[in-house]
Design brief:
Distance between the termini: 44 Å
CATH architecture: Roll
Structural class: alpha+beta
Shape: globular
CATH class: Alpha Beta
Number of strands: 11
Order of helices and strands: HEEEHEEHEEEEEEHH
Number of helices: 5
Number of domains: 1
Helix content: 10-25%
CATH superfamily: Gamma-glutamyl cyclotransferase-like
Low-confidence stretches: none
CATH topology: Hypothetical upf0131 protein ytfp
Radius of gyration: 17 Å
Length: 225
Amino acid sequence: MAARPDTDELVRRALAYPYGPPTGSFVQVGDRTLPVPPEGVDVEGRRALLAYGANASPAALSRKLADLPPAPLPVLRIALGGWDVVYSAHITRYGTVPAAVVPSPGTVASVHLAFPDDEQLATLAATEGENYRLERLVDYSAALEVGGEPPPEIDAFVSIFGPLPLDGAPVALAAIPARDRAFPELSTPAMIDRVRAALRPDLTVPEFVLEQIARGGMCPLPALG
């Protein structure tokens, strides 16, 4: 039986989201993170899945796919035009405020495309629970970091709760670089603290995170002033 994470580890996990997405492309094979080979990767027959939060993190992918036989999962860095990565209006069962994608004309976000096989895609979808739905992205531009033509279609897990407004506007994840960003940005610890201050000002941040974990998260979150 796996050891139960201690409370400090649970709080660190919540505050560390989105778990350090790499600045480049990679191939995840089980718990190994490999560089893209010089000849590129074969993604024929695979759906292109926008990876903009934990799904772009090798550490998170290693956790999510741990029960599958190790198989290559190409994750390629792209410049995505017309969209940005913001905080979703809910708290996850592990106590963080996760990401959502929203249209943002003129913005170019540095995100990733994952190319899962069918089994990997089903497993990733299961980790999103009922908080996201898989949709086809529209009205975007995309350029692959490694060269070549971007796929003709991109799917994305879209938050069913939409963005979390702060003073009337979505808030971008400071950990996700973007050019010409239209929204204010905050780090995850700062956003969790803003939510805590609005909902449970009597608690410290660690106490608030652990309370959310105990209750299985919260959705939807109210707009923050």
